[in-house]
Design goal:
Blueprint: H1 2-10, H2 15-18, H3 20-31, H4 33-36, E1 42-46, H5 52-60, E2 65-70, H6 73-76, E3 84-86, E4 99-105, H7 114-124, E5 125-136, H8 142-149, H9 163-172, E6 176-189, H10 192-201, H11 217-228, E7 236-249, E8 258-259
Parallel strand pairs: 1-2, 1-4, 2-3, 4-5, 6-8
Antiparallel strand pairs: 5-7, 6-7
Helix pairs in contact: 3-5, 8-11
Length: 263
């Protein structure tokens, strides 16, 4: 976790420049609040970072108190909110039942124990409070994963959780009526190095469980040659499976999972 925090702190100055995908997903996540939430007193932007979602929440809920929490202090320095908290999402420094809405944009994939995360979110939400989030699904960066897989059996790309498993864990931790949706977005590049530069620019080059030994130049070139086999119409694709989910903290209600197909 300390390596991930360090990577995001180092990338804080360049994050917004490279985070075009994260900005788009934040916009789509915010739009979902049009139909599932009304004005609320206290909103928590969980994993707020430099404030891509925070800015949208400030515009949507101008009369609400917005709390912006992230574990990377330097990322928070660029956040426009006046209420910033540097803390771990698994140990929220908030009192029970104090939050109306928790919104989280592309943070959950960095939490390696969703049970702990959901327990904490459920604890701090008020009754009938809403948890809304985006994260990445299992097909994310599949071309990069497969290209590395021919080189060695080491972990080079983060593992992502299946959306059905996320829905199950929401129910197991007390949330009601979870809804999961998925869509596939594809970014194209001229060179593999451009993709790797983007990942480094947002601090996402650090991989949980990665063997810290250096990759040889020959192995790196073998990975690139494999990735070239995916080239279409002169461009290299990078697939992102984007998951959106929301669920409620309700009392004495049975839950069920609604899952939308990929578009």
């Amino acid at each position: 976790m300390s390596e991930i925090r360090s990577a995001f702190n180092k990338a804080s100055a360049s994050y917004d420049e490279y985070a075009f995908l994260q900005k788009e997903i934040a916009t789509r996540l915010d739009a979902k609040l049009e139909v599932i939430a009304s004005n609320s007193s206290v909103i928590l932007d969980l994993g707020a970072g430099t404030g891509l979602l925070s800015k949208l929440l400030l515009q949507r809920f101008p009369d609400s108190q917005l709390l912006c929490l992230d574990f990377a202090q330097q990322s928070l320095a660029s956040n426009p909110s006046t209420n910033k908290i540097c803390a771990d999402a698994n140990h929220l420094p908030l009192i029970d039942g104090s939050i109306d809405i928790i919104a989280s944009n592309l943070m959950m994939q960095w939490c390696f124990n969703l049970n702990k995360l959901f327990i904490e979110c459920h604890r701090v939400l008020k009754s009938n409070g809403l948890l809304l989030f985006s994260t990445f699904g299992t097909d994310t960066l599949k071309e990069l994963k497969k290209s590395w897989a021919i080189v060695d059996n080491k972990i080079h790309v983060n593992k992502f959780v299946d959306m059905h498993d996320i829905g199950d864990q929401l129910l197991q931790n007390g949330f009601q009526s979870p809804v999961m949706e998925a869509e596939v977005l594809t970014i194209t590049y001229q060179h593999v190095s451009d993709l790797l530069k983007d990942l480094k620019g947002i601090g996402a080059q650090t991989v949980n469980g990665r063997n810290k030994s250096l990759t040889s130049k020959n192995k790196f070139q073998s990975m690139i040659r494999m990735y070239e086999s995916y080239r279409q119409n002169g461009k290299l694709p990078a697939t992102y499976e984007v998951l959106y989910g929301h669920a409620w903290k309700r009392v004495n209600n049975l839950g069920s999972i609604a899952i939308s197909q990929k578009t």
